[in-house]
Design a protein that fits this description.
heterodimer, A: alpha/beta, 13 helices, about 65% helix, elongated, B: alpha/beta, four-stranded mixed β-sheet, 5 strands
C-alpha cells in the first residue's frame, strides 16, 4: 500500500518539479486568472449606458424641451447633438457618431384631448442589435410614461371621473443594484477552474507523448491508474489555487457578496473538477501534438461551453434543440451552483439537482476517459 | 521580388507540407469557422425572451386574469408556476426555475372598479443583471399598457375617443428586425482570424524552437525577413479561406450579405491577418514552449478580441480606463470596418481612421518581430 502511494507521490513530486521549473508557465497560471477576472468583471457588461443622442426639435416649445430632458436625465442617453432639419440626423447615424436620433414634430407642445396624436420619430442604428434593442426599450418606456402624464392631465379636465392607476412596484432580489459584475465574476471562478484543469491536464500528458517520455513511463512498473492520479493531482492543486485567487479578487476587489457557504462551494468544485479532468484526459487521448490538444480544448470544449452554458447568454433564449444540448455541459450546472451560492446563499437543499447532474456527468466522463486512456497506453 | 520568392519558396512548401501532414489540425482550422458560425448565429441571443414567470394571484377574478393574460400571452415571459405565497416564489428563485414573479394584491378588481390605485408587485431575480433589468422593463411596460387600456375604457364610457397623445414611431436602420446574428456574424470574421493567425503562427514557430530546428533555419543563408514570409504565407492562405467561409455561410444561413465594396472588405481582412501574424510571431520570439506561447496568445489576443473589441459587449459601456486599454485589441477597429462595410455599405471615407490604425498595428507587429528575430540570429 505504502509503496503504491509512494509511486504516486513521486509522480506528483516530479510533475510539480517540472511545472515549477518553467517559470513562465507558473507566472501565466497565476497571472492569467487575475487578468481574466479583472477583464470580465469590467468588460463583460451588458448594461447600456451613455448612448449619444442627436435631437431634431422642430417644435422648440417648453413641452418639447421637457420631453427631450426625459431622455437626457436618464443615464442611458447623452444629448450631444442638435440639428435643425430631420434629414440632418442621417449622417450622425451613418457614421456612428450618434446611436439614436429623436425627431419631434411641430405642434408637439399644443397637444389637446381632441387632437390627433403627434408622431415622434426615433431613428436607431441597428447594427448592434442588442444595444439597439435595449435603447428602443428605454425609449418606449420614456414615451409611454410621458403619454401617461399627458393623459393624467386630460383626466383632471374631465370632471367627476376617478380612474384607477395600476402602479408597478418592481423589487429586485439578490442583486438589488443590478450589477453585471455580480453575475459575471462568480462565473469566472467556474471558467478559470475549467480552463486550468482541462487545458493544462491535456497539454501535460500530450507533452510527454510528444517527447516520448510517456512510453518510458509505460515500461516502468508504474501502473496506469498511478500514472493518471499522479498526473492529475498537480493540476487539481493549481486549479484550486487559482480558484482561491479569483475568489479573493471577486470578494475584495469587486465586492461580490458571498452569501452562501464557502465549503459547499469547494465541495461542489471537486465534483466539477472530476468532469474537467476527465475531459482533459479524453483530449489527451485523441490529440497527437500539443497544438492539436490546444485546438481541440479551445474550440470543441471551451468555446462551446462558454457560449452555451449560460455564462453570458441566457439559455432560455436559445432554440429548443440547442437547449437540450446544454444539458450535457457540466459548466452549465456548475455556473448555477456558483451563482446560487454566491448571490442567493443557496444550499444543498436547493442545489441538489445540479449537484446530482454534475456527479452523473463526472462519473461517466471520467470513467470513459480513463478507460480510453488505458487503452491508448496499451 | 522574384528572388525573394525563390528564396522563400522552400519554406512555404515545407510549411504547407507540415500542415498537410497534420490533417486533424488543418481540418479543425477549416471546420472551426463553420462550427462557430452555426453556434454564434443560432444560439447567441441577448434579447431577453421567455423569462420563466411565477404568478401569485391573491385576487383570482376575471380582471386579475385579464391583466395576467397580457404577460402569459407575451413572448417575453413563459408562465411556469403559480405560487400560493412569497415562500414559494423564493423557492423557485433559489432553485433557478423562475426569474420573475408577479404578485396581484387581494381586492385588485374591486379597487380598480372603485377607482382606487392598485399596486402590483414585480419581483425579479437580479442575479443575472441583464436579464433582470430587461425583463423588469418589459413587465413595467405591459403594466402601463393595461393601465392605459383602463383609462381608454373610462374615456369611452364618457363618450370620448382617446388617442395616445404621443405616437411613437421607431425606425431602425441597417438591421430593422434587430437580429443578433447580423451583428455577431461580421464580428466573427475578426475573431476567427485572430484565433487562427495569432495562435497558429506563434505555435508553429515555437514548435521549431522546441525541436531545435529554428536554429538550423537561422544559420541558413535565409534572412529573418524571408523566414517570416515563408512561415506566414500558409497561414495567410488558411485565414483567408476561413474568412471567406464565414462570409459565404453567413450569407447562406443568416442572410448577412455584403452591402459595401467586397474589395474594401478583403483589404481590411488582409491587413488584420498581417497584424495578427505579426503578433503571433512576436509572441513566438518571447516564449520558449508551446504551452506558454498558447497561454500568452490566449491572453494577449483571444480574450481581448472576445471581450474588449465590442464583438459582444459594447465598448462604450466599459469603464473609461478599460475603454482606453481596449485600443490594444486591433480587432476593435477591424470590427468597425467590417460591420460598416457589410451592414451599412460604408466606403473608405467613413472608415479610413480605422484602416490607418490597422496598418500601423500590422507594421509595428511585423517590424518588431523581425527585429527581434534578427537579434537572435546574431
Amino acid at each position: 500500500m505504502s509503496a503504491r502511494r509512494n509511486v504516486i507521490l513521486e509522480m506528483v513530486r516530479k510533475e510539480f518539479y517540472q511545472i515549477l521549473q518553467d517559470k513562465r508557465m507558473l507566472l501565466v497560471s497565476i497571472m492569467a486568472p487575475i487578468l481574466q477576472v479583472l477583464l470580465l468583471g469590467y468588460a463583460a457588461t451588458t448594461d447600456i449606458k451613455y448612448s449619444t443622442l442627436v435631437v431634431c426639435d422642430l417644435d422648440r416649445s417648453a413641452e418639447s424641451r421637457a420631453f427631450v430632458r426625459r431622455f437626457t436625465t436618464t443615464p442611458y442617453f447623452i444629448g450631444k447633438y442638435a440639428v435643425e432639419r430631420p434629414e440632418e440626423v442621417d449622417p450622425y447615424i451613418e457614421h456612428g457618431t450618434a446611436n439614436i436620433a429623436l425627431i419631434i414634430p411641430r405642434g408637439f407642445g399644443r397637444l389637446t384631448l381632441a387632437s390627433e396624436p403627434v408622431r415622434v420619430q426615433v431613428v436607431l442604428d441597428g447594427t448592434d442589435a442588442n444595444t439597439a434593442n435595449i435603447l428602443l426599450g428605454y425609449a418606449t418606456q420614456i414615451v409611454a410614461s410621458y403619454s401617461q402624464g399627458v393623459l393624467a392631465e386630460f383626466q383632471t379636465l374631465m370632471k367627476g371621473a376617478r380612474i384607477a392607476r395600476i402602479v408597478p412596484e418592481p423589487r429586485i432580489w439578490f442583486n438589488p443594484d443590478l450589477r453585471s459584475s455580480n453575475f459575471m465574476v462568480p462565473g469566472v471562478v467556474a471558467l478559470v477552474l475549467m480552463i486550468i484543469t482541462m487545458t493544462l491536464t491535456s497539454l501535460g500528458i500530450v507533452k510527454e507523448k510528444e517527447i516520448g517520455t510517456l512510453e518510458q513511463l509505460m515500461v516502468t512498473p508504474i501502473r496506469p491508474y498511478q500514472l493518471i492520479i499522479g498526473k492529475l493531482i498537480p493540476f487539481t492543486v493549481i486549479g484550486f489555487f487559482d480558484v482561491l485567487i479569483v475568489l479573493g479578487v471577486a470578494r475584495f476587489w469587486f465586492e461580490v457578496p458571498l452569501v452562501g457557504s464557502l465549503w459547499l462551494l469547494f465541495g461542489l468544485s471537486a465534483l466539477f473538477i472530476l468532469t474537467t479532468l476527465g475531459l482533459g484526459l479524453f483530449i489527451s487521448t485523441i490529440a497527437r501534438s500539443q497544438q492539436q490538444a490546444m485546438l481541440i480544448a479551445q474550440f470543441f470544449f471551451l468555446m462551446p461551453f462558454m457560449f452555451l452554458s449560460g455564462f453570458a447568454f441566457p439559455i432560455a433564449n436559445m432554440p429548443r434543440i440547442i437547449q437540450y444540448a446544454t444539458y450535457v455541459i457540466p459548466l452549465r450546472y456548475f455556473l448555477e451552483i456558483v451563482r446560487g451560492i454566491f448571490l442567493k446563499g443557496a444550499g444543498l437543499n436547493e442545489l441538489w439537482p445540479q449537484a446530482l447532474a454534475l456527479t452523473v456527468l463526472g462519473v461517466v466522463i471520467f470513467t470513459l476517459s480513463v478507460l480510453r486512456f488505458r487503452k491508448t497506453l496499451e | 521580388m522574384i528572388t525573394l520568392l525563390r528564396a522563400v519558396k522552400p519554406i512555404i512548401v515545407k510549411e504547407f507540407r507540415q500542415i498537410r501532414r497534420d490533417p486533424t489540425s488543418l481540418g479543425m482550422l477549416l471546420v472551426l469557422p463553420a462550427v462557430l458560425i452555426v453556434m454564434v448565429g443560432y444560439a447567441l441571443n441577448f434579447d431577453v425572451k421567455h423569462t420563466p414567470l411565477v404568478i401569485f394571484d391573491q385576487d383570482r377574478t376575471a380582471e386579475s386574469r385579464e391583466f395576467l393574460d397580457k404577460f402569459i400571452q407575451s413572448e417575453y415571459f413563459d408562465y411556469k408556476y403559480s405560487a400560493g405565497g412569497y415562500g414559494e416564489i423564493e423557492e423557485h428563485f433559489l432553485q433557478g426555475r423562475a426569474k420573475i414573479a408577479l404578485v396581484i394584491p387581494p381586492r385588485f378588481a374591486r379597487n380598480l372598479i372603485a377607482g382606487n390605485d392598485v399596486h402590483v408587485q414585480i419581483l425579479v431575480d437580479g442575479a443575472d443583471a441583464n436579464t433582470a433589468s430587461q425583463a423588469m422593463g418589459t413587465a413595467v411596460r405591459l403594466t402601463a399598457d393595461y393601465a392605459t387600456k383602463i383609462v381608454a375604457e373610462a374615456f369611452a364610457r364618457k363618450g370620448k375617443q382617446l388617442y395616445m397623445p404621443v405616437d411613437f414611431q421607431p425606425r431602425v436602420w441597417y438591421n430593422p428586425d434587430l437580429i443578433s446574428s447580423k451583428f455577431l456574424v461580421p464580428g466573427l470574421i475578426g475573431f476567427i482570424i485572430v484565433l487562427t493567425a495569432v495562435i497558429s503562427t506563434s505555435l508553429t514557430v515555437v514548435r521549431e524552437k522546441e525541436r531545435g530546428t529554428m536554429e538550423q533555419l537561422m544559420v541558413s543563408p535565409l534572412r529573418p525577413f524571408q523566414i517570416v514570409v515563408g512561415k506566414t504565407v500558409p497561414y495567410i492562405a488558411i485565414s483567408l479561406v476561413a474568412a471567406t467561409a464565414i462570409l459565404i455561410l453567413g450569407y447562406l444561413l443568416f442572410d448577412v450579405g455584403v452591402h459595401g465594396s467586397l474589395l474594401l472588405l478583403y483589404a481590411a481582412i488582409l491587413i488584420i491577418i498581417l497584424g495578427a501574424l505579426g503578433q503571433g510571431l512576436l509572441i513566438s520570439t518571447v516564449t520558449d514552449s508551446q504551452q506558454v506561447a498558447f497561454m500568452v496568445s490566449v491572453f494577449s489576443s483571444l480574450l481581448p478580441s472576445f471581450l474588449l473589441s465590442g464583438f459582444i459587449f459594447p465598448v462604450a459601456s466599459m469603464p473609461v480606463a478599460l475603454q482606453i486599454f481596449s485600443n490594444v485589441a486591433v480587432n476593435k477597429f477591424f470590427l468597425v470596418v467590417v460591420r460598416s462595410v457589410m451592414l451599412k455599405g460604408a466606403g473608405l471615407d467613413a472608415v479610413w481612421p480605422q484602416f490607418v490604425y490597422m496598418v500601423i498595428f500590422a507594421a509595428v507587429m511585423l517590424g518588431v518581430s523581425i527585429k527581434r528575430m534578427q537579434k537572435r540570429s546574431m
